[in-house]
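Reading a protein record of the kind used here takes little practice once its layout is understood. The reader may check this reading against the record printed directly beneath this paragraph.
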Amino acid sequence: MTKVTLYDTTLRDGSQGEGISYSVMDKIAIARELDTLGIHYIEGGWPGSNPKDMEFYLRMAKRSLKKSQLVAFSMTRRAHTRADQDANLKALLKSQVKIITIVGKTWDLHISDVLKTSLEENLEMIRDTVRFLVAQGRTVLYDAEHLFDAYRANKEYSLKCLDCAQEAGASKIVLCDTNGGTLPYEIATVIKEIKPRLQVGIGIHCHNDADVAVANSLAAIEAGADMVQGTINGYGERCGNADLIPIIANLKLKMKIDCIRDEKLKELTKVSHFISEISNMKQRNDQPYVGLSAFAHKGGMHINAIMKNPKAYEHADPALIGNRRRILVSELGGKTGVMLRAKALNLNLTRDDPKTQKILKLLQKLEHQGYHFEAAEASFEVLLKKTLNKFKKFFELEGFRVVVEKQSNKKITSEAIIKVKVHKTHEHTAAEGDGPVNALDNALRKALKDFYPTLAKMHLSDFKVRVLDEKAGTAAKVRVLIQSQDEQDTWNTIGVSENIIEASWQALVDSVEYKLLKDNVGTK
């Protein structure tokens, strides 16, 4: 089996994505998760660019990774500066990291318009930088920035840049599609032309501006690259980087190329969700392989076929990457959808069972009222278990009040006061929030936290409201969909009412109850 090494740059390139900011402890937690998965190289940041990245490397120097090797990133020395006097290169040595990735210019446009120096000086910058770091005992990977644009514009010069890096001692040449605009057939053609020229291995680093970063990465490997760079969930600047999650799955399952151990493949879904949680980014439902909807089936014909042979509508076994098949329950799925969803929850229902018909009629009634359970699978699980008397009551609401206050020249504040009963104990508490729903969520979990500590690990990640009858104006019925998330999972719940607070409360309660059900917790 062919071997490809994986290079993760979530902690540097990924952190440049809009809305992402990692603390040092976040970086350490992500590095540990990537190490457990078996990623070969983890690029932790640019130690010369900010104190946080340097602190990360110095802390990691006191910790040992089991499978992965830590890499530090920087650029070639500045123009007309000695390598041993360059501040960025000094910072690399201070970081104590043994493997260094150096990015250098290969596109003559960048050299003339951005660096404002000569083509010859740029070659010297590449040569001096790599030679200096190798002399210091470092292993150097050379990132040829904008290589594919450079190759189109000035093929001869771009190849000179690669030659300089190789001759100076770089152990790997990484070809970068930095602008993300190259297509797969172009990637493959260039790599096949360049590969015979190099005595060292080739890596590929793609951005996703044309929505083909994963395809480009796979095309590069097929053409001869033996290292692939990317980020978890495709995080990165602009449209992001190549997503290592589907890359790994495709390499293992489709191309039969070794990149991680077989037993680690089933951890992909967990790793994806864990890093989205730390990144404070909503998990994409439609993310290939690991998304909530990746193996979801709704249409009755599809569901019927899946029951007979899952291969009929699934390109891979979801269990292989730690995901699961989902049967979306709606009136379109009929009894089959209800039966399959019950089976997934270890609840035995048959087509002729009166309970099956009872649940289907209840489902049709609620969907007629505005519920939409295909978008709120967690709410349906709670409903199903309650209907079948398989539900353990975790708490009872005794009442709540929400106060929204606006004072002159001050922002609106929201406070929720709530009374709940957990078995024989009464809890009365209050909490503030950014809005009434956030305040209710905070108050409910505050009231329950001593009884169910696991609730501290969940939070609301999305909130949607849809008016179901616009003609009714302010008296219209609304549907509230809430997405919740913890370190391993994402789930959706629903509420419907003429009152948006009541609809939100229904969805909030379902969210909390589902969390407690899936964690199989008890009270203190």
User: Anything to note?
Assistant: The radius of gyration is 27 Å.
